Structures are given as C-alpha cells and as structure tokens.
Amino acid sequence: MPVINTNIAANIAVGYLNSNQNAETSALAKLSSGSRITSASDDAAGLAISTRINSDVVALQQAATNAAEATSILQIADGGASNVSDILARMKAITSEAASGTTTDSSRAFIDSEFQGLLGEIDSIASGTRYSGGALLDGTFGATQGAGQGGGGGQGGGTAQSQPVSVLVGSEGTDTISITLANLTTAALFQGVDPATLNLTTQANATAMLGTLDTAIDTVSNARAEIGAQESRFNFSSSSIQTQTQNLQSATSTIRDVDVAAEQAALSSAQVKVSAAVSAEVAANNSMQSLLKLFG
C-alpha cells in the first residue's frame, strides 16, 4: 500500500546501512590494531583467557631475569671459592716444607708469616666476594638477602653454610629454586682446630696441619661442586622458561591476533554492503517523491 506518512523502505535501508557501517568499523578497528578482540563483546571468554596468559608471560619474563641474576651470583661465588682453593693449595705447599725435618725453626717462622697472611686473605675473599653489596662466602648470604629459614645465617662463624635463598623461576609462588652457598671463612674451614696450633712454628704443628688442610681443601671442592650443580639447574630452568614463554605467546596470538586476510575480506564485503545500503536509501527516498505525481 503506497503511503507518504512513513517511508518504510527508507527505514529498512537505514537499518541495514547502520549494521553494515558497524561491521565496516569493526573490521577497520581489528585491522588497524592487529587484534581480533578490540572490545570484550568480540570474545569475552577469549579476552579473559588471553589476559591471564599475558600475565603469565610477563611473570615468566621476570623469572628469566631472576634466573640470570641467580646464575651471576653463583658464578661470582665460584670465582671466590676458586681463589680460596688456590690459597689452600699454596698453604699446603708451604706446610709440607715446614713439616720437613730439614727446615729449621727460624725458617719455619718465616714460613708461618706467609701462612698467617694467607689465612687472613681467605677471610678477605670470603667477606669481599659480593653481589649487590652482600657478601656471598662468609656465612651471611641468606641473612643479608632476608630469606633465611628460621633466622639469619651465621656471621662468619663456625656454621657450615649460609641460609637458603629462594629464587622465583616461574609464574607461581611455588616455582622456586634455592641457592645455598658455603661459608668459606677460616672459622668454618678450620672448625674444631685449636687456634693455638693454627701455625707452622713447630714441625709438630706443621705435620698436624697437613691433614687439616686436606679437610679444608675437600670442603672448598665440595662447595664448588654444589655451586656448579646449582648453576646447571638454573641454566636448564632458563631454557625451560624461554620455551614456556614462546609457547604461551603463541597461544595468546592464536586467541587475540587478527587473521588479516579474513578480516580484509570482511571489510571489503562490509564496504560493498554500505554502498548498496546508501543506494537503497536514495532509491527509497526517490520512491516517495514519485507518489507526489498522483496529486498532479
């Protein structure tokens, strides 16, 4: 039925025009942003999942930094322990000289002077081997990092090693690896030895010191082996973190990244429909003008 009060055809054309323009706008937004989800209404579930994955990726990227930092700490500690090992080897050499019956007591006094200097150097290395201001080999490592289990570590005393320090190497609070560093001060290495006999002034002291030095050398060797084992674990952890990060980034890409080819096709289709709707709107308006001829 021809009417002039309501242009039904034009209203229909406008409805389709709005719909097609919205589709065109959505396609342009997705192509320009590179994201399939430009608003929560595009894919609410996908947005929630990808947001959680992105937070895990960020946490893993920081975990990679944590693992690298831990590796640096262990490398520095191993360097200090290596120096202590070299000093102990030198101490054993001069102790062997002092233990020989061919060495006089006056010569032993000179040998003991070097021996005492080397003892002091061990403590200097133990306290001077540092990372970010904290000593690594004097038994205070866990205490200075504030991560000791059940209180602070020993202050360079007779404790065997510092307190464990937990390093976060994942996206959850339970994803940790502990660092434990040995106490390599003279108090720890020569624990139980009477300070009065810790010298080479007599042949008897020198002879007894040989066994003590062997024990100290073994202690340092075990400490370096433990450092190496921990460093190896962090290296594998770093590789695992890298793999996890790559896989999670791939997963979120699948959810969020736009398929450019498909979206370009959708944009082209929407643009054609917009043009068609505009033409239909013009035709609908013209049809109302044609009805006026009936009054002629």
The secondary-structure class comes to: mainly alpha
SSE series: HHHEEHEEHHH
CATH topology of the largest domain: f41 fragment of flagellin, N-terminal domain
List how many beta strands DSSP finds. Answer: 4
CATH superfamily grouping of the largest domain? f41 fragment of flagellin, N-terminal domain
Q: Would you identify the CATH architecture of the largest domain?
A: Up-down Bundle
Give the averaged pLDDT, no decimals. Answer: 86
Poorly predicted parts? 147-159
Strand content: under 5%
Please tally the helical runs, counting DSSP H or I stretches of 4 or more residues. Answer: 7
The first-level CATH class name of the largest domain: Mainly Alpha
What's the quaternary structure here? single chain
Strands ordered across the widest β-sheet = 1-2
Distance between the termini: 19 Å
Largest sheet: 2 strands, antiparallel
What form results from the Cα inertia axes? rod-shaped
What percentage of residues falls in helices of 4 or more residues? Answer: 55-70%
**Rg from Cα:** 39 Å
Count of domains? 2
Question: Could you describe the 3D structure shown?
Answer:
The protein is mostly helical. It has two domains: 8-34 and 259-295; 62-254, f41 fragment of flagellin, N-terminal domain (Up-down Bundle). Helix content is 68%, strand content 4%. The chain has a two-stranded antiparallel ribbon. It has a two-stranded antiparallel ribbon with strand order 3-4. A hairpin with a 2-residue loop joins strand 1 and strand 2.
